[in-house]
Each structure stands twice: as structure tokens, then as C-alpha cells.
């Protein structure tokens, strides 16, 4: 056959027809598929009822089988009601009723057979409408959010903002959140859209704060839009459900602080990060942010919690004190703790290098340390902040996670160089929109995050802009769990304080001395939190009659009124002064000297205070007498403990129980917000 005889038959028409058929089939599946599940489930129930009727129908076992089906249906309905709490009230009831109706039809079909009267009539007049109700619910929900697209494409919204020719499509539609993509016309970029986001949200008639937008990383003209459905989560009350991953490694699961507006867990991973925790007074930064964070850390293995708060002493840390490895409730104690942090970095990084780890690892043998610095601007002097600045990056690789808490993270409260090292942020409500730029990174603000809209009017609301936070979730609103004082105390006692590794403990003692180190230990009788002298960190005299030394870096003549603010013009100087502490080097020789473990012999801090055993009734009378001596002025629990500790050896929980008894019998009134007690005022008859 010659080349002239070769005829190429055209195939494009057949291919085009096949493509059109495939596309039609895909369209049919995409339309019909989501509507099919209720009928598939219904068919399965009919089949199951027929099978059970053929086996048990008309026998002595029928009654027992149907009783079991009824009990199982009630239990399943109850479980459905509990686990669907995140849905709307209608959605929760709809799901529960569906379970009850399905199990009821199954029991009836077992007795009579699924196609016998009256079961078949119940199936037709009850089951089919119930399936249709699920179809209608899905269609209404889909149409409601297709309305966003319709308003953008045909409602004149895109033209009003200069986005003619742009296209809007829905990429994902879930129960509480929908995802969209907006393709802008050539010449426009995503920043043009995000800049107009508040006004676009208003034009689309959605709730303020429910719309967020971020630029696509690969395409400059593509915007990813997230819409949070339903009402504001700020109106919800969220009781604390307990720790999210008790017993897990701190790196295995995020630290959960609450839930987001789409009812997903809200938190962050502490791996290789430091956090700026900000929020105005009354916004929930301490009891919403710090408490949830502490509860998570206390419940994790490999982790210990350190804390310092000179502004509120033990008001924040008191209920969690049993779970804290070290606590610094005064300015001077806070400086000692900062000195410890600075001193332990080098031996920890050397140990990591010896074990061939570039950064902290659960198998390194070192404890992971979370340091919560409450009201940091009140805690440290300028020199202390310089020392904190020098910790920086090396602390992350050494397995030390800093959480720096401030009401305002402005330039006069914190050096900009230090703020740059806090590479994650959790922001509760702030009082001034101008402070947004200090509380959150620019990418979060561009996405629509605005904590100033809450101020102190919506306590517990927060944004998360952590290292592991996806861009599309930067502007999603979150609400913290509400932990009661009793829950925190019970949680801290249940898990206790984590055990610090010997290498870190050895370095800490070498830095400030055994006495000062023990004064930071909440489980010690020498704990500074039990002292009447708020800034007395040195324990009583040793048997030699001399006060123990505080270590090679002993603090002498510290000015308690030293300024805690600094001149922002010194930022460059600070950056130059900050010494660079190298990261752990996996290439260090294997025979690198490792600091010896802490001695196992018991440390001596001199004779304990004189304590005498008294009967329970006498102890109660002593507490009541101490309360009487307080007069009409408010007081805190530690004041009673400080007065009676030399005479009555009881736990802090025991003192709390006695004060609670006085509240219950009407003698005292407890101010939950201020965490203080005062004598109940007598009202004349």
C-alpha cells in the first residue's frame, strides 16, 4: 500500500462526544451524589429489618431483640445530641430526631417485617419526608453560600469596588466554614482585594469579622477567601473540657487554648517558637490565655512550667502552683529566674550537640521548659530586658519556650529587637487600633484580624498568628475556654509539676545558689510565695549563723524602683550588645564533657521553723482568729498561710478549705475577680 492510500480517520468528533458524555456523567454524580446518602441509609435499614424479621420475627426472642434495639437507639440518640453541640440548635435536634426515627423503624420492621403494614406506611410517610428534609437542608445551605457568589458576580459588588471581570467560585463548603477563591482581572493583585475587605464584607451582607482573605502564594491575582458561618462565637460560653492531649509529648499535639469560630481547636505548636501574648486589662489574657496554656503544659510529658509575675504575685499562678516546677512571684525572684534561663542555655545546647541533635528532641534527656512571663514590662529593668534579648534564638534550640505577656506590646514597653524574636503571637482584645501592628504580624492584619474591635468588652476572644498557623486562619476569631479556679487547682494537683532534668538543675544551682533556687520551688517550705516580705528571696540563716550566698552572680543592692522602660533609640545598641549564643552543634566531639548530675544527697537549708501539732478544731480556731485580725480590709489566702505556717503545718489546699467554710457560713465574702476575701458587711435590720 502506498503512502497515498493511507487515510487518517478523524477521531476528534468521537473524542469530543465522549468528553461531553463524561462531563455530563460527572455533573450528574456531583448533583445527585450528595443527595443520595439519606436514601442509601434508608435502604440499608429496610434490608437490616428484613433480615432480623426473618431470623427473630414471630419467635420468643422478638421481644428481647426489639428491647435491645430500642435501648441502643436511645443511647445512640443521646450520644448524637452530645457530640453535635457545635451545630445550631436546629441541626442538633434534626440529627437526634433522625437517629430516633431510624432505630424506631428498625425495631418495628423486626416485629412486622419492613414491607408489612403499618411499618411500610411509616416508612413511606415518615422515612421519605425525613430523607427529603436532609436534601432540603443541604440545598438551602448550599444556596445560601452560593448567594455570596451571586452577589459578587451579579449583584454589582465587584463593579462597586473596581473588580470588573473578576470571578468568584466556592472551593469548599463545610458545616461552619466555606472556602472561596477570587480570580482578579489582569493587572490587579490580591492586596487590592484585602485592602477593601471590611467594605466588601459589608456589601456582601455578612457578619463583621466573618470574612478573611489572604493572597495565594503562587498566583498574584488569586485571593483565598474564608467565610465563617453563623453568629459570633463571642456570645458562646465555653466550659473547659480538660486538657487536649494528656500524657502526650509537648511536640506531638498543639497547645489548645480554645475553639475557633468554625469550632475547630484553636492553639499552636511550641516547636521552635517564642510567643507574644498581649491583651488589655479585662480582655482575658491571663485567665483565658495563660491559664489554658499552663493547663496544657502541665498535662504533657517531657515538659516543665516556669513562671514569673511581679504585678499580680500569685493571683494568676496561685491555682496552678502545684503544677509549676519553679515560680517567681516577685520582681527580685523574677530576675533570679531570668538569670537561671540565661545560664542554662549553654550546658543544654552542649548536651544536645553531644547527642547529635540540632535542637531539642524528646529523646535528648532534657526537659522542655515553658517560661510564662506575666506582665513582663513590670517585671524587668532595662538591664534585665537586655539579658532577655541575649537569650533569643538560642533558647528555642535549647528547648526553652518563652511566652512574654504584656498589656501593650508598643515600642515603649519592649525593644523592637526583642519583639522580632517573638515569632508567634496570641492577641486578645486591645484598646487602640493603632496597637494592632504591635500585637500581631502584618500578614494577620492584612488578612483582616482586628483585636481592637473587642477591647475589654469581649473577654476571651483572641487571634492566633503562630509559626504553624496557616495564612487562611490568621483572621479567624477564637474564644478561650473558661477554666474555674477549682478546675485549675484540681488539674494541677492531679498532674503535679514535671521533673526537671539534672543538667539544667545543676546549671541553675551554679548560677544563683542552692538557697535562691529552692526559694523558687513552690513545694518547698522556703518558697518565696509564702513570705510576708514580697521581695525577700534569701531564706533564713544556715546553721552557721550566716545567710547563704546566692551564687556567683549574686545580686547586691538592686534598686527595686529601677525603670522598666527604655529609650527606643537604643535598639541598635541593644542589638550590638546582645551576645550570640550558638545553636547546638551536632558536630561536637562525642567525648564532650557533660555537667555532672545533681547530687542525690538531701540539701540542707537550716533548721525548719518551729511547728507544733494541733488538733483539727484548734487549727480551725486559729484560722478564724487570723481572719479576725485582718479586720475589714480584703486579704488573700497567702496572708493567712504566712501568719500561721510557723505554728500549723498544713497544705495550701487545707487553708483554702477552711476559708471556703467561712464563706459558706456567711463570715466571709470571696471576690472571684480579685481573688480576695473580706468580712461580710452587716446590714441593720
Automatic annotation (TrEMBL):
Residues 536-552, 577-586 have a biased composition (Low complexity). Residues 526-559, 572-616 are annotated as: Disordered. Residues 252-437 form the FtsK domain. Transmembrane segments: none annotated. Keywords: ATP-binding, Nucleotide-binding. It comes from the Bacteria. ATP binds at residues 279-286. InterPro entries: FtsK/SpoIIIE/SftA (IPR050206), FtsK_dom (IPR002543), P-loop_NTPase (IPR027417). This is FtsK domain-containing protein. It comes from Nocardiopsis suaedae.
